[in-house]
Automatic annotation (TrEMBL):
InterPro entries: Ribbon_hlx_hlx. This is Chromosome partitioning protein ParB. It comes from the Bacteria. It comes from Parapusillimonas granuli. Residues 1-24 are annotated as: Disordered. One of its GO terms (biological process) is regulation of DNA-templated transcription.
Amino acid sequence: MTVKLPLNSKRPAKRVGIGARPPANPHAEAWIRQGGADALNKGDLYTARLTLDITPALRARIKVSAFTQGVTVADLLRGLLECEFPEHRKENTP
């Protein structure tokens, strides 16, 4: 068998075929499509985005605090905002 070299190449041209996709497990495919057994889409809970301008130093302190607590920055800030602005405030009721 003779291999023809392309004009500007030192390596032989090879064609490697990609095999067929293995048969899929329909239960696994359905589980992946729904996002896992107990997964909840963040969009189901949080539907608004809030953007704040803060100093790099404050951002660093927030990130360190979230890391030491083992939570994400978003979860840490959501918790703080929930504490400060609960759904039912006593001073807002007549």
